[in-house]
Amino acid sequence: MSRIGKLPVNFASDIKVSTNGDVITFAKGKNSVDLDTKGNVDFSVESSTLSFTSKSDEKAHRAFWGTYRALAQNIVTGLTDGYTKELEINGVGYRAAVKGRVLNLQLGFSHDINFDLPEGIEANVEKNLITLKGHDKQALGQAAAEIRAFRPPEPYKGKGVKYKQEHIVRKAGKTAKK
Protein backbone atom coordinates (compact mmCIF):
# COMPACT_ATOMS: atom_id res chain seq x y z
CA MET A 1 0.00 0.00 0.00
CA SER A 2 1.29 3.43 -0.94
CA ARG A 3 2.01 5.65 2.04
CA ILE A 4 1.84 8.75 -0.13
CA GLY A 5 -1.04 7.62 -2.34
CA LYS A 6 -3.43 6.98 0.52
CA LEU A 7 -3.11 10.54 1.89
CA PRO A 8 -5.88 12.88 0.68
CA VAL A 9 -5.05 16.12 -1.15
CA ASN A 10 -6.68 19.00 0.71
CA PHE A 11 -7.30 22.23 -1.17
CA ALA A 12 -8.71 25.63 -0.23
CA SER A 13 -12.23 26.66 -1.16
CA ASP A 14 -10.94 29.21 -3.73
CA ILE A 15 -9.50 26.39 -5.88
CA LYS A 16 -12.06 24.89 -8.23
CA VAL A 17 -11.54 21.18 -8.95
CA SER A 18 -13.46 19.58 -11.79
CA THR A 19 -13.18 16.21 -13.50
CA ASN A 20 -13.81 15.16 -17.08
CA GLY A 21 -13.19 11.45 -17.57
CA ASP A 22 -9.56 10.81 -16.60
CA VAL A 23 -8.60 14.52 -16.50
CA ILE A 24 -8.63 16.56 -13.29
CA THR A 25 -8.70 20.36 -13.75
CA PHE A 26 -7.52 22.69 -10.99
CA ALA A 27 -8.40 26.37 -11.40
CA LYS A 28 -7.73 29.44 -9.29
CA GLY A 29 -8.34 32.87 -10.73
CA LYS A 30 -6.87 33.02 -14.23
CA ASN A 31 -4.56 30.03 -13.65
CA SER A 32 -5.78 26.60 -14.70
CA VAL A 33 -3.82 23.33 -14.66
CA ASP A 34 -4.90 19.93 -16.02
CA LEU A 35 -3.71 16.58 -14.67
CA ASP A 36 -4.34 13.68 -17.06
CA THR A 37 -4.30 10.40 -15.15
CA LYS A 38 -4.57 8.37 -18.40
CA GLY A 39 -6.83 5.88 -16.62
CA ASN A 40 -4.05 4.62 -14.32
CA VAL A 41 -5.75 5.56 -11.02
CA ASP A 42 -9.22 6.07 -9.63
CA PHE A 43 -10.01 9.33 -7.85
CA SER A 44 -12.89 11.02 -6.06
CA VAL A 45 -13.57 14.64 -5.14
CA GLU A 46 -15.56 15.49 -2.00
CA SER A 47 -15.99 19.12 -0.89
CA SER A 48 -12.35 20.21 -0.37
CA THR A 49 -10.46 16.89 -0.59
CA LEU A 50 -9.24 14.79 -3.49
CA SER A 51 -8.58 11.10 -2.85
CA PHE A 52 -6.75 8.64 -5.08
CA THR A 53 -7.04 4.84 -5.12
CA SER A 54 -5.11 2.24 -7.06
CA LYS A 55 -6.83 0.92 -10.19
CA SER A 56 -5.70 -2.64 -9.47
CA ASP A 57 -3.02 -4.55 -7.56
CA GLU A 58 -0.56 -4.46 -10.48
CA LYS A 59 2.85 -2.99 -9.71
CA ALA A 60 2.48 -0.22 -12.32
CA HIS A 61 -0.92 0.89 -11.00
CA ARG A 62 0.39 0.99 -7.44
CA ALA A 63 3.32 3.14 -8.61
CA PHE A 64 0.99 5.53 -10.44
CA TRP A 65 -1.17 5.83 -7.34
CA GLY A 66 1.48 7.70 -5.33
CA THR A 67 2.81 9.55 -8.37
CA TYR A 68 -0.50 11.12 -9.36
CA ARG A 69 -1.29 12.01 -5.77
CA ALA A 70 2.07 13.82 -5.50
CA LEU A 71 1.49 15.61 -8.84
CA ALA A 72 -1.95 16.76 -7.63
CA GLN A 73 -0.46 18.02 -4.35
CA ASN A 74 2.23 19.94 -6.30
CA ILE A 75 -0.45 21.59 -8.44
CA VAL A 76 -2.48 22.63 -5.37
CA THR A 77 0.62 23.98 -3.61
CA GLY A 78 1.64 25.85 -6.77
CA LEU A 79 -1.76 27.49 -7.12
CA THR A 80 -1.96 28.51 -3.45
CA ASP A 81 1.63 29.48 -2.58
CA GLY A 82 3.65 29.21 -5.80
CA TYR A 83 7.18 27.95 -6.21
CA THR A 84 10.50 29.81 -6.24
CA LYS A 85 13.97 28.88 -7.52
CA GLU A 86 17.02 31.06 -6.96
CA LEU A 87 20.10 30.97 -9.17
CA GLU A 88 23.36 32.68 -8.33
CA ILE A 89 25.80 34.01 -10.95
CA ASN A 90 29.49 33.96 -9.99
CA GLY A 91 32.24 35.33 -12.23
CA VAL A 92 33.87 38.58 -13.28
CA GLY A 93 31.69 40.30 -15.88
CA TYR A 94 28.85 37.78 -15.59
CA ARG A 95 25.51 39.60 -15.57
CA ALA A 96 21.79 39.02 -16.01
CA ALA A 97 18.89 41.33 -16.85
CA VAL A 98 15.19 40.87 -17.52
CA LYS A 99 13.70 42.58 -20.57
CA GLY A 100 10.00 41.77 -20.79
CA ARG A 101 9.63 37.98 -21.20
CA VAL A 102 13.35 37.54 -22.04
CA LEU A 103 16.18 36.88 -19.59
CA ASN A 104 19.41 38.35 -20.99
CA LEU A 105 22.55 36.60 -19.71
CA GLN A 106 26.17 37.67 -20.17
CA LEU A 107 28.23 34.65 -19.16
CA GLY A 108 31.66 35.21 -20.66
CA PHE A 109 30.81 34.12 -24.19
CA SER A 110 31.39 36.35 -27.22
CA HIS A 111 27.62 36.87 -27.41
CA ASP A 112 24.71 37.46 -25.03
CA ILE A 113 22.30 34.63 -24.31
CA ASN A 114 18.61 35.54 -24.58
CA PHE A 115 16.45 33.00 -22.76
CA ASP A 116 12.70 33.21 -23.46
CA LEU A 117 10.85 32.59 -20.21
CA PRO A 118 8.16 29.89 -20.43
CA GLU A 119 4.51 30.83 -19.95
CA GLY A 120 3.69 31.25 -16.26
CA ILE A 121 7.31 31.81 -15.15
CA GLU A 122 8.43 35.23 -13.90
CA ALA A 123 12.05 36.30 -13.40
CA ASN A 124 13.58 38.96 -11.19
CA VAL A 125 17.27 39.91 -11.07
CA GLU A 126 19.05 41.61 -8.17
CA LYS A 127 22.83 41.98 -8.54
CA ASN A 128 24.02 38.38 -9.11
CA LEU A 129 20.81 36.60 -7.99
CA ILE A 130 18.13 35.42 -10.43
CA THR A 131 14.78 34.61 -8.80
CA LEU A 132 12.31 32.53 -10.81
CA LYS A 133 8.68 32.27 -9.67
CA GLY A 134 5.77 30.25 -11.00
CA HIS A 135 2.88 27.96 -10.18
CA ASP A 136 4.06 24.95 -12.22
CA LYS A 137 6.80 23.09 -10.31
CA GLN A 138 7.96 21.05 -13.31
CA ALA A 139 8.18 24.03 -15.72
CA LEU A 140 9.98 26.12 -13.09
CA GLY A 141 12.58 23.40 -12.42
CA GLN A 142 13.09 22.86 -16.17
CA ALA A 143 13.63 26.59 -16.79
CA ALA A 144 16.11 26.82 -13.90
CA ALA A 145 18.01 23.76 -15.17
CA GLU A 146 18.21 25.22 -18.70
CA ILE A 147 19.56 28.55 -17.38
CA ARG A 148 22.14 26.72 -15.24
CA ALA A 149 23.18 24.60 -18.25
CA PHE A 150 24.36 27.69 -20.16
CA ARG A 151 27.39 27.96 -17.84
CA PRO A 152 27.49 25.28 -15.10
CA PRO A 153 29.80 26.08 -12.18
CA GLU A 154 33.35 24.89 -12.67
CA PRO A 155 35.25 23.27 -9.76
CA TYR A 156 38.45 25.37 -9.80
CA LYS A 157 37.24 28.94 -9.34
CA GLY A 158 33.51 28.31 -8.83
CA LYS A 159 32.56 30.53 -11.79
CA GLY A 160 29.24 29.92 -13.48
CA VAL A 161 25.51 29.71 -12.71
CA LYS A 162 24.51 27.64 -9.70
CA TYR A 163 21.46 27.14 -7.51
CA LYS A 164 21.66 29.36 -4.44
CA GLN A 165 21.71 26.43 -1.99
CA GLU A 166 24.06 24.32 -4.16
CA HIS A 167 27.53 23.61 -2.79
CA ILE A 168 30.33 23.42 -5.34
CA VAL A 169 33.07 20.92 -4.45
CA ARG A 170 36.29 22.77 -5.19
CA LYS A 171 39.42 21.17 -6.60
CA ALA A 172 43.00 22.22 -5.96
CA GLY A 173 44.76 23.80 -8.92
CA LYS A 174 48.17 22.91 -10.28
CA THR A 175 51.07 22.82 -7.84
CA ALA A 176 54.38 24.52 -8.66
CA LYS A 177 57.51 22.42 -9.29
CA LYS A 178 60.07 22.47 -6.52
Automatic annotation (TrEMBL):
RNA-binding among keywords: yes
SUPFAM superfamilies hit by this protein: Ribosomal protein L6
Keyword Ion transport carried by entry: no
Single GO term (MF): structural constituent of ribosome
InterPro entries recorded: Ribosomal_uL6-like, Ribosomal_uL6-like_a/b-dom_sf, Ribosomal_uL6_a/b-dom, Ribosomal_uL6_bac-type, Ribosomal_uL6_CS
One GO cellular component, as annotated: cytosolic large ribosomal subunit
UniProt record, GO biological process: cytoplasmic translation
Record's keyword terms, sorted: Ribonucleoprotein, Ribosomal protein, RNA-binding, rRNA-binding
UniProt domain Large ribosomal subunit protein uL6 alpha-beta: residue ranges: 91-163
Family indicated by similarity: Belongs to the universal ribosomal protein uL6 family.
Name of the protein: 50S ribosomal protein L6
Organism: Sulfurimonas hongkongensis
